[in-house]
Amino acid sequence: MNGVSVVIPAFNEESSIQLVVTELRDLLIEHNITSEIIVIDDGSTDATAQRANAAHARVLQHRSNRGYGASLKTGIVAASYDVIAITDADGTYPGRYLPQLLTELESADMVVGARIGNDVHIPLVRRPAKWVLKRLANYVSNSTIPDLNSGLRVFRRDLAMQYFPILPNYFSFTTTITLATLCDNYAVTYVPIDYRKRQGRSKIVPWDSGSFAILILRVAMLFRPLRVFLPLALICLLYGVVKTAIDLSHDPNISASAMFALMSTLLIVLIGMLGDSIATRLGKLNPNAVIGVRTREIVELEPEPATDGAIEPVVYSLAENIVSSRFGS
To answer: Where are the beta strands (DSSP E) in the chain?
Structure first.
């Protein structure tokens, strides 16, 4: 590993961002890991960018709020190194796990910090929905997923960029990349981590759970459509068979509803097989995807002078890097 780019999306996190960057910077220096820390200020209205810059992070700013996923895409494209680590700006993910995740990446395609440690503070109101979503994701991916949407993970840049066309610009970025990599049979490793209590108000609202469920089904339709269509076909078939049996026990004629259910079974199976054939033939989506944020909407701050022990930020043209990542150098 030549080095790691730590990407931190931030929106109005002035109270925590400086501490998060400092903790990570000191940790990376202590472990002699070549690195850069990139903070994506996603249109914050407070001093998030200035405090990240004061902590000697490399700061990129969106002129307007584009979303968590869009910020990650900006950071991934702008990264100087092929290995990407992502974490949150609110300080909930302890930085001490990052060296372990990087070590595990030597034998995996993606390593996720699973929030199943001894000291995990996930609000009780969110746990039932997370349990249901995790079971649905396990079924779709045919895998056991300890943590579906952890925001602490490491992966290689080319792995993420090939999925850019389907990775959302909002909070479902991590859920989507988890499911996509598992459905494509990449090696995903999980490392148990603690999860600190969040300071301030979470930006995830309760009704987002419905959106996450739709997202999981959408990913299933892209990668494993039969996992969606076959259960529907089975339901129609069971109804059709039972209704036919009831009809024939009273009358030699089969009702229209029974016929409709049986015909629907055949139609659903055929659609599912067609979708599966398309997914298999297409294989991976086009990796040369646009970032999702126009380059003129991204501003890079002038870095603060590095002090002793600080990581010297790398300064170069973001637009040039985006072009080279899309079309080759």
So the answer is: 4-10, 35-42, 58-62, 83-86, 110-114, 153-156, 188-192, 298-300
Q: Is the dihedral of CA 195, 76, 181, 230 positive or negative?
A: positive
Global pTM value: 0.78
Nearest residue to 227 via CA among 170, 179, 173? 179
SS3 57: coil
pLDDT for 257-267, tens place per residue? 999 999 999 99
Residues 159-182 have pLDDT tens digits of 999 999 889 998 889 999 999 999
- Kindly state the tokens that stand for 207: 């009704």
Q: Which amino acid is at 80?
A: S
Query: CB neighbours of 132 closer than 8 A, spacing ≥ 6?
Result: 209, 213
The residues near 305 (Cβ < 8 Å, ≥ 6 apart) are none
Instruction: Report phi then psi at 8, rounded to 5.
Output: -125, 105
